[in-house]
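User: Can you fold this complex?
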Amino acid sequence: MERIEIFKQAELFRSLDDETLRLLSERAIEKRLERNEILFLADDEAKGLYLIAEGAVRAFRTGHDGREQIIHIERAVATIAELPVFDDGKYPSTVAAEEPTLLYFLDKNEMRRRCFEHPQIALSAAALFARRLRGCAELVEMLTLREVSQRLARYLFEQAQETGEPDGNGAIRFKQNLTHNQLAARIGTVREVVTRSFYRLQNQRLIETRNKDVLIYDLQALAAYFD
Amino acid sequence: MERIEIFKQAELFRSLDDETLRLLSERAIEKRLERNEILFLADDEAKGLYLIAEGAVRAFRTGHDGREQIIHIERAVATIAELPVFDDGKYPSTVAAEEPTLLYFLDKNEMRRRCFEHPQIALSAAALFARRLRGCAELVEMLTLREVSQRLARYLFEQAQETGEPDGNGAIRFKQNLTHNQLAARIGTVREVVTRSFYRLQNQRLIETRNKDVLIYDLQALAAYFD
DNA sequence: TCCGAACGGTGACAAAAGTCACGATTCATC
DNA sequence: GATGAATCGTGACTTTTGTCACCGTTCGGA
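Assistant: Here's the predicted assembly.
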């Protein structure tokens, strides 16, 4: 696929005309990451933003013990590390690849110039940031005001809505592909507690797990559990 | 003071010309809040944004038990609830006054029109959101990866930097005006644990509290404690 | 198909956080 | 200065979370 076609799919660039897109995409520098390879570290000097053309990345913070807390995940086609373009600060979190990933790097000064020429970029960025802020506020609430099994319930609820398939008698089924470690990094805990939280939800008859499948009997009941 | 002079001080409007500012400020609807009065609730239908002309507000989320977690505080002159202007969603958190507060309300549709006429607003908004996102990511890290006394240490550290005065022999002193309950809502815990965390820090010889005063012997040591 | 690494389950335990009750102190205001 | 409300200190306790060790299972390449 043409670079320009990829760029057009990113929320940040959706509103741009082909000519500008071509300019942008021609200057972009390609970069490939393997699974778990780190793109940059939190507080690194920020040189620009990245467009994710294939694959997915996670943005996270690390504690002393090395425990990770994921802030958000972005998958192709999307951008990451846009903040420094607008406030000239450092990278706000560490970013690593969730899977083999193809990225295009865009210099922040060039991006800034494009923003003045094409204010729609700033509007898109504002909308993008707005969504992120919502997610982040939600995350804060979950982390500090709910307990782990509620956070897990919420995660499963969202997965069910995104990828769930009806399973006869009103239940919903979906594949749970993350390891307990990955799950833990998302909901703010550790592996063992994830295991035990799954049991809690099973004992409450809210879910059933078989292999990598999760079966949710009643979405409403699950929502009621965490909300 | 003239409304327009106040508006000009808000980051969001700083780049606007006087004529536009006049238009905006003339349409704004005044609103006064007493201490702890609620402006709107999280998930309320968003009608527009507010400019804080005097006073300060807190944006927070509430748990079932009524416990509050503050996401951020904004004090005059600043804006709040700008998100819905850019992504048309609901209010992302509950907002209440920290002290008697004077606000000006601006309709979101009008704001949106102004954004198209004056793209600098979108750029300012992007910069503003960028700063908020940094704060929020930081908050997530603190809440989930550090323990309470570290979070308290960090809060005191920041206060020391903002309002601290040197106190002879290299120490720094400042007034701690918040109640333990308010403090708890900021650092994500409850009153009693705040009390005990203060003791921890004292026992570690990192701080000394006398009345409402906090004395920090060594800022670096305090920073090392939480970082 | 075999092997080593990654992953998941589990018990025992430690530590942190939260809850409750109650009394002492401080504060705001009359 | 008196007084009621808000705030703070504190001990005893429960719950949740995190840690550690260990073992069986699964998975992904050679």
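The two ends of chain B are 43 Å apart (CA to CA). Chain B touches chain A at residues 61-64, 67, 69, 71, 83-84, 86-87, 89, 92-93, 115, 119, 122-123, 125-127, 129-134, 136-137, 139-141, 143-146, 188 (CB under 8 Å).
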